[in-house]
């Protein structure tokens, strides 16, 4: 079930060609093979990895392969968690659509393009921005999320550096979003594909012309915008929570800027290499005694 109004050629709101495009997108993502999802994930890492060599923001002095291996390990644990819990997401989406439950279902029928845009915005708000904000504001969840922030060399592989416990939390918010919004599974899978690529993009160690980056940041989360979130001290750590769309940070007053040359990556409680460069310690951090953040410089 596509859950939007198909428009005919006489409907000026959505020409037949536009409806066919939405139908094609919905049909593809409703049954997207796992191999295609893997290609999107790996292809994005490979593309931005090469781009980092061409236009780097910082010339890090680090063992790039060792750093990548740590982050890819956590990427694989995220894949395992998502695969193992996929039936819950499918059940939530299928139930909402079949029972016409959720904001999108109640507002339907609507043109396909509007259904797609509103669905992507809603998924981004609940499954990404809200999930991210909650993890920063909840001490227990922060202890899992800070593994992502301990990365002292942000690059495209950092995008999926999430503790397995955090992966479970993020998955729960995605299922919640599918239920609250009533999003069909094709729209969830489309959002996830866009989320993977955009997250790899805004974490990538690349530099764009300032004018271009600022222009992008009015619509999507640009590299400069997201890297402020990875500055090692408050209040910057608690800003720019967005994943795909920048509108939520601007709307909720959590948008901030910081000059590129002032960026210092990491989190001030775990700045030593022993804290952020060993998989065993990263897995154990949520279960270690919490550390008080040092006074702000």
Which key phrases capture this entry?
mainly alpha; 297 residues; 0% strand
How would you characterize this protein structure?
The chain has 297 residues and is mainly alpha-helical. It has a domain at 18-208. It is built from 14 helices and no strands. Helix 6 crosses helix 7 and helix 6 (112-137) packs across helix 9 (185-203). The longest helix is centred in the middle third of the chain and has 26 residues, at 112-137. It is globular.
Rg? 20 Å
The biggest sheet, with number of strands, parallel, antiparallel or mixed sense and barrel status, is: none
Query: How much helical structure, as a percent, in the residues?
Result: 55-70%
Compute the average pLDDT.
93
The number of distinct β-strands equals 0
From the N-terminal CA to the C-terminal CA, the straight-line distance is: 55 Å
Principal-axes geometry comes out as globular
Q: Give the helix tally.
A: 14
User: What is the helix/strand order?
Assistant: HHHHHHHHHHHHHH
Outline the low-pLDDT stretches: 5-10
In terms of quaternary structure, what is this? Answer: single chain
Structural class: mainly alpha
How are the SSEs placed, and which strands pair?
Blueprint: H1 16-30, H2 34-54, H3 64-84, H4 86-98, H5 103-107, H6 112-137, H7 139-149, H8 164-181, H9 185-203, H10 210-216, H11 223-229, H12 247-252, H13 273-276, H14 279-284
């Amino acid at each position: 079930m596509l859950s939007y109004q198909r428009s005919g050629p006489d409907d000026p709101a959505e020409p037949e060609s536009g409806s066919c495009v939405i139908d094609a997108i919905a049909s593809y993502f409703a049954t997207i093979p796992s191999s295609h999802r893997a290609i999107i994930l790996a292809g994005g890492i490979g593309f931005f990895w090469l781009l980092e060599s061409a236009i780097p923001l910082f010339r890090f002095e680090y063992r790039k392969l060792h750093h990548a291996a740590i982050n890819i390990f956590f990427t694989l644990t995220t894949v395992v968690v998502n695969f193992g819990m996929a039936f819950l997401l499918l059940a939530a989406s299928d139930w909402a659509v079949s029972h016409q439950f959720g904001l999108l279902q109640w507002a339907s029928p609507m043109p396909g393009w509007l259904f797609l845009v509103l669905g992507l915005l809603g998924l981004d708000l609940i499954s990404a921005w809200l999930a991210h904000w909650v993890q920063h504001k909840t001490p227990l969840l922060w202890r899992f999320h800070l593994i992502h922030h301990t990365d002292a060399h942000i690059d495209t592989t950092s995008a999926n550096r999430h503790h397995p416990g955090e992966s479970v939390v993020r998955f729960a918010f995605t299922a919640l979003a599918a239920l609250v919004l009533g999003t069909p599974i094709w729209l969830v899978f489309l959002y996830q594909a866009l989320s993977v690529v955009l997250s790899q993009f805004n974490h990538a160690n690349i530099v764009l012309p300032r004018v271009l980056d600022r222009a992008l940041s009015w619509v999507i989360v640009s590299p400069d915008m997201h890297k402020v979130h990875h500055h090692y001290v408050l209040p910057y750590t608690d800003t720019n929570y967005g994943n795909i769309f920048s509108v939520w940070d601007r709307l909720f007053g959590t948008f901030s800027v910081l000059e590129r040359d002032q960026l210092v990556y990491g989190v001030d409680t775990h700045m030593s290499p022993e804290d952020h460069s060993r998989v065993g310690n990263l897995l154990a951090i949520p279960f270690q005694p919490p550390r008080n953040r040092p006074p702000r410089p």
